[in-house]
Design a protein that fits this description.
By secondary structure, the protein is an all-alpha fold. Helices cover about 60% and strands about 0% of the residues.
């Protein structure tokens, strides 16, 4: 034999390859179905986003309408308070009856109650907007403004899906009653 020795190491790597012919298109159809499901999910997401944006716009414009109604009711309260004072003076002078005074008082108090109802409805819209944009309702506030005040300039940023965005809105820094 030979005088030198040679070491040989045999390595065996397990390797298995299999192939299945897609004769009936099962794999292709599965891939197409997965793509269709992904597109349907994306369409569902866009539909929900559109619905939320529409609800946000609806709540915003309802709130602005309530701001205008509040302004009108406050003006009426001032007028009815003056009318009540005038009616009381007429009653004192003997020109008006106690029924006239009671009617003026009722009209004034009814208008005050309507103004309170409008404030409650406005707060509900404001809270709905806070929820839609992901803000805590207790720390969120939109200042009262005229009904024709344009909405925030960047509604996409202020709307759904942007964490922490409050573009066009301000945070409440004082108690609710100090408006």
């Amino acid at each position: 034999m030979t005088s030198g020795s040679t070491n040989v190491t045999d390595l065996a790597i397990p390797f298995d390859v299999s192939y299945e012919a897609d004769v009936f298109g099962r794999v292709r159809h599965t891939v197409e179905a997965a793509r269709s499901n992904a597109q349907a999910s994306a369409a569902d997401l866009e539909s929900v986003s559109l619905s939320l944006h529409a609800e946000l716009a609806l709540d915003y414009f309802q709130m602005r309408t309530l701001d205008a109604e509040e302004q009108l009711l406050n003006s009426n309260v001032t007028s009815f308070a003056k009318f009540l004072e005038l009616t009381q003076n007429r009653y004192t002078g003997g020109v008006a009856s106690a029924v006239d005074v009671a009617q003026a008082q009722t009209q004034l108090e009814t208008t005050r109650a309507q103004a309170i109802d409008v404030l409650v409805q406005r707060a509900q819209n404001e809270h709905a907007i806070a929820v839609l944009i992901g803000q805590p309702a207790s720390t969120f506030s939109i200042p009262a403004a005229a009904w024709n005040t344009p909405p925030p300039r960047d509604p996409a940023r202020a709307a759904i899906g942007t964490a922490g965005a409050t573009s066009g809105y301000c945070r409440r820094g004082t108690a609710r009653g100090s408006r």
